[in-house]
Amino acid sequence: MSEKAPLIPVAAPAERYSRVQRCPKGRVIGKVLAAAAAAGILYHGMLYVGNPGVVDQAELCLSPACVHAASELLYNLSPNYKELDPCDNFEELVCGGWRDRHDLRSDQGDAFTGTIMSEQSHLLLRHILEAPYPKYSQHSYFSPMQLMASKKSADEANFDKIKAVYEACLNEDQIKSLGVKPLRDVTEEIKKTYSVAISELSTNHDLKDTILLLAKYGITSLIGIDTGADDTDPDTVVVSVSAPYSFGLPSKERYEDKKLVENYRDVAVDVLAMLYPGQDVDAFGKIIDLERRLAAASPDSEDRGDVTKYYNPMLIDEAAAIAPEIELKALIHDLAPAESDVERVIVMAPKYLKELSIILAATDREVLQSYFIWKAVQSLSSYVEADAVKPYKRFRNVLAGKDPDSAPERWRSCVAHVDDTLGWILSRFFVEKAFSADAKQFGDTIVTDIKTEFIKKLNSAEWMDKNTTKLAIQKVHNIVQKIGYPTKSPDIMNPDTLVDYYKSVNISSDSFFQNQLVANRFAIDLEWSALGKPVDRDQWGMTVPTVNAYYNPPGQEIVFPAGIMQRPVFDVEAPAYMSYGAFGSVAGHELSHAFDSTGRHYDERGNYSNWWSNATVKAFEEKADCFVKQYANFTVPGPNGKPLHVNGRLTLGENIADAGGLSASFQAWRRRATEKPNKDLPGLEHFTHDQLFFVTYSNWWCGKSTKDTAMNRVYTDPHAPKWARVIGTMANSREFRESFQCKVKEPTCQLW
């Protein structure tokens, strides 16, 4: 278990990433500069290998941005890329050098290009947090809020607040001196709320009260209870009840690994025995059996995001009757604002609730109490430094294929902590340093261009009937694009607005653990305060430094934080085929989600409804089945050395979006290139501009993963492994096959 797992070319989805160690690349830059010097200002007479006999008269770009972009691509290409057949394994051609020159740190389970981008952003944020407040004269030319003297005091107060959070996290001596006490304070509260012995002090509501207590600390225990837009009425906030997304091990399938389960059981017993020495350890061990039963009763991964299966509206009394032990109606009443009257809920997993009732009836109070304590340990152990929680931290590392005692550098964890705690204040300072008005305008242009091309695709989709096509086109027109950062809910450029937004987040400069509890409670209160009000369509689901993007079906919006609009994915000053190839394909991917296996169920107003004709649905399902079978052929090493197949149904929506997004962005770039020709990049004479579009796209997915992390993601991640996203998407791209003159031009699978 302590050995470092072998590396395979797989990477994680863009969540929160760790920095990848990089080798010096002066040799590569030298090659670029030499090629540029030899070519002169104009790149005349260049013969492209990919398009023999065609002379390109494009101008050579020698700006710093172009030299940097070219060096990045050359740095990542396989050392023998000229000898590889791009039609055979394009991922190796584009990413072979990336893997040669990048190693995972001991604290990393995976990494890819997005990891580096995220950590570059985190490094910038570290510099912001460790520097004094920037005085008025030090603000950049693009300070979106254009600070005025009257706003300065509020802005500086906000800055002091994020610094206090950061410094409390950095104060490891203080954290160690407190030891396990902050966690024990929480677990003692749990023990008092759910006592083992039924006595005069016990109530008939202690199970409900304990679930509520944990929920207010941001801890999910037996059920998940959340609020959000109603799928069939997207302007109304509704309560949803679900099975927890995690029970302890990464997925329900991992509970079938007997050796892993026994190791996990030993860890739970060790941790809880140190927290409560002398207490009966039998109950500690039995909580893993409880977790296993709960996990077995929970929905399969591919069903959790399927609106046709999870959307089960019920009157609250009807829902509460399914599992009466948890007192659902009273639980929701205690979570909701006093003036709210919840009459209807969405039960996302009715079968789980029925099984939960049976499981609770068969579980001793000692085991349930230990289970609640264990949930607190799992959720909050990251915020204490004590011997009692070390076995669990080691286990989590081993489970991901990391070195058991590894941990990120402290500043990395603390930057992430500030983003989790006061993310919109941090976002305000990030925007000033890392974004520009030109970048926002260029991003809007790319997304608008892709909308135009996607409408063309809808019009040419012969398998859709005319009325469905008409409604689908209207849906594209209605999709809201959010670029860069929010200016409402909250307006991050208004310091007074941010002061008011976070007024209930009382930060302690010497209590890292307490700051996290305060942040958790703030997030819970904010979520539940939405009940009884119209859905706030101005809210964002990601902070600005986040290297990611998303499509929100009920909200009819595609959202791109400034964090993903950075090099090498996005660059106003580089040739457009790079930004369209990488960021444009991400934008097209999110737009394509509006018509994938999930998004197609939502109409032009964001309502969950049957707006496709039966014939169109049947044609879609036939085409989608091709993607299911194609990706199910990809494998990673699984348990006991046997191949573990990618779940083609779990990853269906993402795979459809990859194919549609790439094609729409390529067509958008080609149309723009006829209006404003792109320049050549020095040292990349082997490729045409068309080909560099696909090189840049694939460069975004270059990555590595440990075996264990790759396996866990196959069970839980709706995205295919990164290398499969290159190979599969290229196989599904007619434009790629034509650009590289592949023998077979017909895509393996095609929807749009």
TrEMBL record:
Specify one Pfam family. Answer: Peptidase_M13
Q: Name one GO molecular function term.
A: metalloendopeptidase activity
Q: Does the keyword Metal-binding apply?
A: yes
GO biological processes: protein processing
What cofactor does this protein call for? Zn(2+)
Q: Which residues form the Peptidase M13 N-terminal domain?
A: 86-486
Swiss-Prot/TrEMBL keywords: Hydrolase, Metal-binding, Metalloprotease, Protease, Zinc
All copies of the Peptidase M13 C-terminal domain together span 548-747
This protein's GO cellular component annotations are: plasma membrane
Q: Which Gene3D superfamilies match?
A: Collagenase (Catalytic Domain), Neutral endopeptidase , domain2
Q: Which family does it belong to?
A: Belongs to the peptidase M13 family.
According to UniProt, the name of this protein is: Peptidase family M13
Naturally occurring in which organism (per UniProt): Ampelomyces quisqualis (Powdery mildew agent)
